[in-house]
Structures are given as structure tokens and as C-alpha cells.
Amino acid sequence: MEIRVQSEAFAAGQELDTFTRRACAAGAVVSFTGVVRDVAGGLVAMEIEHYPGMTERAIAGMAEEAVRRFALVDALVIHRYGRLAPGEQIMMVATASAHRGAAFAAAEFLMDWLKSRAPFWKKELTLGAADWVAARQEDEDQLDRWRD
């Protein structure tokens, strides 16, 4: 299992190749890469803040839960912070398991958790404003499906 919180960009294809080689005992690998979305057409950048140490521990705990819950062979979570432009990669999740169902479910579980509970604070910068991104009910609803 690998967790990285970093400011620098990453190459999703290279990360996936490395992860897949490392998870050679798996029969399925699933990955997801999130990018900065310019919904209104006026986004200049997104600034992402976090508390070093606390963020990594929180993500590692949830990744450990995913490994246990879905019997994963391996898991990878990369999440960036700092100032990101529209189209830049924010995060990547990769999961490896014996079968595709568990790999897909684990990836969704991790993505839902990252979206709703990971300790990141996001601010959208436009030409005329800077607004913190608020929690969305849809994201909470997605997370609820994983509760025991």
C-alpha cells in the first residue's frame, strides 16, 4: 500500500504501470484519476490545503480499511495540494485484487471517502472571487452506501 500527498504533478500512466507490476498477484487492477474541473468556464485555479502528517494518517487509515474490506492485494492513493490549474490532475486511486468486482468497489469506496472525509480544504479562484468549496449532499449520499 502506498499513500502520497504531494504538491508536484504525477504521470498517471507511469504510476499505473509501476503499481500493476508491483501487484503481480492480482487478477484485476482499477484506477481513477481526478482532474481540476472548470465547471463555469471562469476558474483560474484551485488551491488545496492540508495538514501534513494528519492528512497522510487519515488516508492511510481509510486505505487500510479498503484493503481489509475488499481483500485487496495492493492500493495506491496519490493526492496533490497547492495551486492547480484547470485540467491538472488532483488525485489518483489504484486498487488491485483477485477479481474485478472487489477492485472496482474498493476504488469507488476510496474515491467516495477522499471526496467527503479526507482532510483537504479547497478554494476555487476565479477572476473576481475566491470561494471555499462547500461539502455537497450528493457526496455524503455516496459515502453513506459504504456504512456497515
UniProtKB/TrEMBL annotation:
Q: Does the keyword Protein biosynthesis apply?
A: no
Known pathway: Cofactor biosynthesis; molybdopterin biosynthesis
Please verify whether the record's keywords include Membrane.
no
Any one GO MF annotation of this record: molybdopterin synthase activity
Q: What is its EC number?
A: 2.8.1.12
Reaction catalyzed: 2 [molybdopterin-synthase sulfur-carrier protein]-C-terminal-Gly-aminoethanethioate + cyclic pyranopterin phosphate + H2O = molybdopterin + 2 [molybdopterin-synthase sulfur-carrier protein]-C-terminal Gly-Gly + 2 H(+)
Entry-linked InterPro entries:
MoaE_sf, Mopterin_biosynth_MoaE
Q: Name one GO biological process term.
A: Mo-molybdopterin cofactor biosynthetic process
Q: Which keywords describe this protein according to UniProt?
A: Molybdenum cofactor biosynthesis
Indicate the enzyme's highest-level EC class: transferase
One Pfam entry name: MoaE
- What family is reported? Belongs to the MoaE family.
Q: Subunit comment for this entry?
A: Heterotetramer of 2 MoaD subunits and 2 MoaE subunits. Also stable as homodimer. The enzyme changes between these two forms during catalysis.
Q: What does this protein do?
A: Converts molybdopterin precursor Z into molybdopterin. This requires the incorporation of two sulfur atoms into precursor Z to generate a dithiolene group. The sulfur is provided by MoaD.
User: Which protein, by its recorded name, is this?
Assistant: Molybdopterin synthase catalytic subunit
State the organism named in the record.
Answer: Haematobacter massiliensis
Query: What does UniProt list as this organism's lineage?
Result: Bacteria, Pseudomonadati, Pseudomonadota, Alphaproteobacteria, Rhodobacterales
